[in-house]
Amino acid sequence: MESNYIVVFSTVENYLNGYQIAKVLVTERLAACCTILQNAISIYEWEGKIDERKEFVLMIKTTQNKFEELKHRIKELHTDKVPEILAIPIVQGLEEYLDWVSQITSS
C-alpha cells in the first residue's frame, strides 16, 4: 500500500533562508512541521568543479498531495539556482503523528 506521507529534504546555505522557507511552508499549510538541522557539509560538483559548503538541512513533513505546491514554493524562496528538493516516502509511522500531519495539511 502506498503511503500519502512524505519527508522532503532541502539544504540551504544559511539559517535565515532555511527559517524563512520553513515558516512559509508551515504558515501556508504546505507542511505540518519543518525541522532545521545545522552543521551539515555538502561536497558536490557544480559547473565543472568540486565544491563544498556548510549547510542547514530542512526536514519537511508533509503529504504527497502537497508536494508540487511545496516544491514550487521552495524554489521561489530558495537562494540556490537549483535547490535540492527530495521527497522520501514514509513507510510507517506513529498513527497519531501521521493523523496530525494530515489534519494540518488538509486545507
Tell me what the structure shows.
- This protein has about 110 residues and is α+β, with helices and mostly antiparallel strands.
- The protein has 3 helices and 4 strands.
- The chain has a 4-stranded antiparallel β-sheet with strand order 2-3-1-4.
- Strand 2 and strand 3 form a beta hairpin.
- It is elongated.
- The mean pLDDT is about 95.
Summarize the structure.
Helices cover 33% and strands 38% of the residues.
Oligomerization:
single chain
Strand order of the largest sheet: 2-3-1-4
Determine and state the CATH class.
Alpha Beta
Q: Total strand count, please? A: 4
- Rg, rounded, reads 14 Å
User: What fold name goes in the CATH topology slot?
Assistant: Alpha-Beta Plaits
Shape: elongated
Number of contiguous helices: 3
Q: What composes the largest sheet? A: 4 strands, antiparallel
Give the ordered list of helices and strands. EHEEHEH
Give the second-level CATH assignment, the architecture. 2-Layer Sandwich
- Uncertain spans, ≥5 residues at pLDDT below 50? none
Average pLDDT over all residues: 95
Q: Key features?
A:
single chain; Alpha-Beta Plaits; 107 residues; 3 helices
Helix and strand topology:
Blueprint: E1 5-12, H1 15-27, E2 33-46, E3 49-63, H2 67-77, E4 86-89, H3 95-105
Antiparallel strand pairs: 1-3, 1-4, 2-3
